[in-house]
Write a structure and sequence with these properties.
four-stranded mixed beta sheet, 2,3-Dihydroxybiphenyl 1,2-Dioxygenase, domain 1, Glyoxalase_1_CS, alpha/beta, 16% helix, 154 residues
Length: 154
């Protein structure tokens, strides 16, 4: 596959997530990821928040869902964030444990058998599947899915 429609450089801008309760989701994302609120608003029952770091928009929250995330519907599979070191993943894991976040696997796991990259897989307050990983340092644990990508079917 090649370039399409004359696009020369492409990168993800931000990810928008539907949530059921912005009062619950906003502190979760701020505490876990260190996001700052860049903007937020409410009008006619519509609530939203733009979250980022160092002034860069990364995630938007839209309070417009009536039920939590379901893996059986088409759409987002999971949202992954890369950090520099496995120590940062461990620190995030401790914050998440303090928030009683649900984990898919127990602790840090590699992305596949014999792979150095890996991290933690967990859910937000609405069950949206999230990942925080480092490019190295996760190869000390067995891969929960063998050679199948750990972030694939969970």
């Amino acid at each position: 596959m090649g370039q399409s429609a004359g696009i020369k450089a492409l990168q993800t801008g931000h990810v928008g997530l539907n949530v059921t309760d912005i009062e619950r989701s906003l502190p979760f994302y701020a505490e876990v990821f260190g996001f700052e609120v860049l903007a937020e608003g409410e009008e006619e029952g519509r609530r939203w928040a733009f979250l980022g770091r160092e002034g860069r928009l990364l995630v938007t929250l839209w309070q417009q869902s009536n039920s939590g995330f379901t893996a059986s519907s088409a759409g987002l599979h999971h949202l992954s964030f890369q950090v520099e070191t496995v120590e940062e993943v461990k620190a995030a894991e401790q914050v998440l444990r303090g928030l009683n976040a649900p984990f898919q696997y127990d602790g840090i796991v590699p992305h596949g058998e014999g792979t150095a990259s890996g991290g933690i897989f967990f859910g937000d307050p609405d069950g949206i599947r999230l990942e925080i990983y480092a490019p190295t340092g996760a190869d000390t644990a067995p891969a929960p899915s063998g050679s199948t990508p750990t972030c694939g079917f969970f």
